[in-house]
Design brief:
With 541 residues, the protein is of the alpha/beta class. Helices cover 32% and strands 24% of the residues.
Length: 541
């Protein structure tokens, strides 16, 4: 498979992909238009903040499966369009937090103590230190806008230097403010007039774009200092330049522009201008927030591992998947089980279905990850129906196209197992065929009920599901047929019905086998005396 990288990531991460057999092309320093044309034939693309994953690029792509944003912000990714195109969108939201947080704090020190201005002065022969008398951070008030991952790091560090930290974030609970020892401002207007420093840490959204403009700047204390290491445009650039010229803002430190320059071009090659480049007391870094050795390594490795997983069809934490609060690792075994249950249906039964009801029982019912487990069930069912392109991102849409209704319910009540997935397939002739399964450990997925037969059968990749008369001699005949074709039986499990004196006892066997079986062998087994039905369940990748 082919992977396109349009903005540089750590060389070891590129090698990681090559070592796994991917054909990787680093296509650096090209324009957006060139990238949009070049995308054909690539299965995945890795970008940072400059390349836009937009409708045009997605329309031009002919086999794109995954987009990897090596970094946090996803304002350059049209996530909705990715979902519509069935493309998995991934990012590394935690890998560069510390780097970005430290940069913001570094900028705060710098503009409180005039470090950049003094440095420039002495290099121009001006050693008059009286020109660069600063103010101390200790005892001053810092206002953090956006108390997410980076805002929290910045708050902790600024408190550590003795600042009084207040924050405005309408979306995080009071508990978080309390834990950080940060005073909550219920409105932005409450925060603005009390701060000596304002540092922004929100994403760029319709709501946050221009959140600090002329009106807000003039609600601040005269001589306020501003740091923006989040996203360009959160602070209106023209308004900030004017307020700096006027002295309303004493100094600003900016890591990000509304319209970003190219970060690859050498001096002289760059045709870029911005009003802030000419504003007094405005100190600028070229989007350096994530640029540490540690963050570069973490972001690069994080994104290539996700891309590798996504291209292999594994469950990975994608932006355009239902979000849940736990760890993906905790629900992975249930996702695997649910996908297998979905795949089993059409391998075991030919009757079309109109509805699938999935019920999560026990502790599983409390998990916010059941939506993802249900997607796995849909994926399995759809794969069983011949859909080779289904993924976590488009499973719901593909399912809707089939007209099969999928309903998810939960109950915390426990029957026999701490966690149970009950799946009911409602056939078009009105029957209800049920498969129930549970997980005993990370690798032990167990079917506990299959089409009405209670059993306890650990799943393996290839299973023969045999329905037979529950009379002596049948097992021997099955084993003989398989043995005559050199097929090794790995394990056998039964569920039985009508044992209580009925003259028609039946059994359902799950026979795990080590070698593939041909249609001829299945036919031969079907003809064995006492065997009623044979289905081959292929459940591996
Ligand atoms: P996050 O999602 O963890 O936190 C963002 C916070 O902003 C959330 O708590 C959210 O509730 C809050 N928020 C959203 N809308 C708001 C509003 N209208 N008013 C107040 N708060 C609001 O994100 P993060 O990982 O902390 O990243 C923060 C920003 O930093 C993002 O814009 C990201 O792109 C940027 N970033 C920049 C660099 C860099 O190199 N300069 C590096 C990493 C991240
Ligand atoms: C991010 O959002 O991760 C940062 O802006 C850094 C980057 O884009 O490289």
């Amino acid at each position: 498979m082919k992977i396109l990288i349009t903005e540089s990531i750590a060389e070891e991460s590129v090698q990681y992909l090559r070592d796994r057999g991917y054909e990787v092309e680093e296509y650096l320093g090209h324009s957006q238009e060139e990238i949009e044309q070049y995308i054909k034939g690539f299965d995945a693309i890795i970008v940072r903040s400059a390349t836009k994953i937009n409708e045009t690029l997605l329309n031009n792509a002919d086999c794109l499966k995954a987009v990897g944003r090596a970094g946090t912000g996803i304002d350059n990714i049209d996530v909705k369009a990715c979902t519509e195109h069935g493309v998995i969108a991934l990012n590394t939201p935690t890998a560069n937090n510390m780097a970005a947080g430290e940069l913001a704090v570094g900028h705060a020190f710098s503009i409180f103590r005039n470090l950049c201005a003094a440095n420039e002065g002495v290099h121009n022969g001006d050693f008059r230190r009286g020109n660069w008398v600063g103010i101390e951070l200790e005892g001053k008030t810092a206002g953090v806008i956006g108390l997410g991952r980076i805002g929290s790091i910045v708050s902790r560090k600024l408190k550590g230097v003795g600042m009084n930290v207040v924050a405005y974030d309408p979306y995080v609970p009071q508990e978080k403010f309390d834990k950080l020892g940060v005073t909550r401002c219920k409105t932005l207007d409450e925060l603005l007039p009390i701060c000596d420093l304002i540092t922004l840490h929100t994403p760029k959204t319709k709501e946050t774009y221009g959140i600090i403009s002329k009106e807000q700047l003039y609600k601040c204390k005269r001589g306020v200092r501003i740091v923006n290491a989040a996203r360009g445009g959160l602070v209106n650039e023209q308004d900030l330049a004017d307020a700096l010229a006027d002295g309303q803002v004493a100094a600003a430190a900016i890591d990000v522009f509304d319209k970003e320059p190219s970060y690859n071009k050498a001096p002289g090659e760059q045709e870029y201008d911005n009003v802030l480049l000419h504003a007094p007391h405005c100190y600028i870094t070229p989007h350096l927030g994530a640029s540490t050795v540690e963050a570069t390594a973490k972001v690069g490795q994080g994104i290539v591992e996700l891309i590798d997983g996504a291209l292999k069809g594994e469950l990975v934490a994608a932006i355009n998947m239902p979000q849940f609060s736990g760890s993906i690792e905790d629900i992975k075994p249930y996702c695997s089980l649910a996908e297998k249950i979905g795949r089993m249906y059409f391998q075991a039964e030919a009757t079309p279905i109109t509805k699938v009801e999935v019920r999560y029982r026990g502790e599983l019912a409390e998990s916010s990850g059941t939506g993802i487990i249900t997607l796995s069930l849909m994926m399995g069912l759809l794969k069983g129906m011949g859909n080779d392109h289904v993924s976590y991102v488009n499973a719901q849409e593909c399912m809707a196209e089939t007209g099969i209704e999928v309903v998810e319910t939960k109950t915390e009540s426990i029957q026999k197992y701490n966690n149970l997935i009950n799946v009911k397939f409602v056939t078009e002739d009105g029957r209800e065929l049920k498969i129930n399964g549970t997980v005993f450990g990370p690798d032990t997925e167990v079917i506990v009920s299959f089409f009405g037969y209670e059993m306890n059968c650990p799943l393996s990749d290839t299973v023969l599901a045999l329905k037979n008369n529950d009379v002596p001699g049948v097992i021997g005949r099955i084993a003989t047929v398989l043995g005559s074709h050199n097929i090794n039986i790995a394990s056998m499990h039964w569920g039985r019905k009508n044992q209580d004196g009925s003259d028609n006892p039946h059994a359902q066997a799950f026979v795990a086998i080590d070698q593939p079986v041909s249609k001829e062998i299945i036919d031969e087994l079907s003809k064995a005396e006492g065997v009623l039905k044979v289905s081959l369940l292929e459940l591996g990748e």
